[in-house]
Specification:
Elements lengths: L2 E11 L5 H11 L3 E6 L5 E8 H11 L7 E9 L8 E3 L2
Length: 91
């Protein structure tokens, strides 16, 4: 299994639409480690780490998000895997 870690910033209507909860569910279902949080500018930031195909699939899923979200951009950045396992909401 090849490991990959990617940090994303998701822009659009992504706060107050259950984006963080959806991200935790989706990332956990894919067996990913990482975290998600709201940013002060209305965007959502997340770190996904794990199997390369699962990380890529999660990043692709963020381009759509949960039903109430309206994603306009997803920016990807290389990252280092977190030291914890599991997927968390952080502040």
């Amino acid at each position: 299994m090849t490991g990959l870690a990617i940090r994303v910033i998701v822009e659009g209507r992504v706060q107050a639409v259950w984006f963080r909860g959806w991200t935790v569910q989706e990332a956990t279902a894919r067996g990913l480690a990482g975290w998600v949080r709201n940013l002060g500018n209305g965007s959502v930031e997340a770190l996904f780490a794990g199997d390369e195909a699962a990380v890529r699939g999660m990043v692709d899923a963020c381009r759509q998000g949960p039903p109430a979200a309206r994603v306009v951009a997803v920016h990807e950045y290389p990252a280092t895997a977190p030291e914890h396992t599991g997927f968390l909401t952080v502040r």
